[in-house]
Amino acid sequence: MKSIYITGMSGTGKSSVIKNLQNKGFTAIDTDYGGWTEISSPEGAPEWILKTDHLKQLLARPLASPIFISGCYSNQTYVYPFFDHVVLLSASLETILRRVTVRISNPYGKTVHERNEIRWNFENIQPLLKKNISAEFNTEMITIEEIATILEILAGK
């Protein structure tokens, strides 16, 4: 079975897609929760990174059904070879800032510092995310349900 990594800036809909896939009975993991990340301080500034060995162990086992994993971390490219597809969710900066302001599922993006960080990431990190992807979906133009259905097809279901 196939594995798909879903990435994108905060507020693009990763968690919503994962929840949709979970509701359909798929193994779908939001790496923001459940111990998939750890704090690292390689250059002095602490940041959350993926526990890549943890993910590699999960993906090294034969998969009985498709698996969908979401996240956006500086070290995620180390696990890309273990995925059949890497999918980017995107939206305009204005939409992202609006979404993080009103969402209740995740507190990130509410403070001035975090919103400035989102702006910086949009300008500097999002272009890097576009370099190694299989597909990109603009979540302003296509619904979460439609994205989940396309991901099911990519996964062979």
Structure description:
With 157 residues, this protein is an alpha/beta fold. It has a single domain, classed as P-loop containing nucleotide triphosphate hydrolases (Rossmann fold, 3-Layer(aba) Sandwich). Helix content is 36%, strand content 20%. The protein contains 6 helices and 7 strands, in the order βαβββαββαααβα. The protein has a 5-stranded parallel sheet with strand order 2-5-1-6-7, with helices on one face. Strands 3-4 form a two-stranded antiparallel ribbon. Helix 1 (14-23) crosses helix 6. It is globular. The chain starts with a strand and ends with a helix.
Give the strand tally: 7
CATH topology: Rossmann fold
Q: What is the molecular shape? A: globular
CATH class category label? Alpha Beta
Strand content: 15-25%
- Structure class: alpha/beta
Number of H/I helices: 6
Helix content: 25-40%
- Please identify which CATH superfamily we are dealing with: P-loop containing nucleotide triphosphate hydrolases
**Mean pLDDT value:** 94
Computed CA radius of gyration, to the nearest angstrom = 15 Å
**Biggest sheet strand line-up:** 2-5-1-6-7
Tell me which CATH architecture applies here. Answer: 3-Layer(aba) Sandwich
Largest sheet: 5 strands, parallel
Termini Cα gap? 9 Å
- Number of structurally distinct domains: 1
What sequence of helices (H) and strands (E) makes up the elements?
A: EHEEEHEEHHHEH
Low-confidence stretches: none
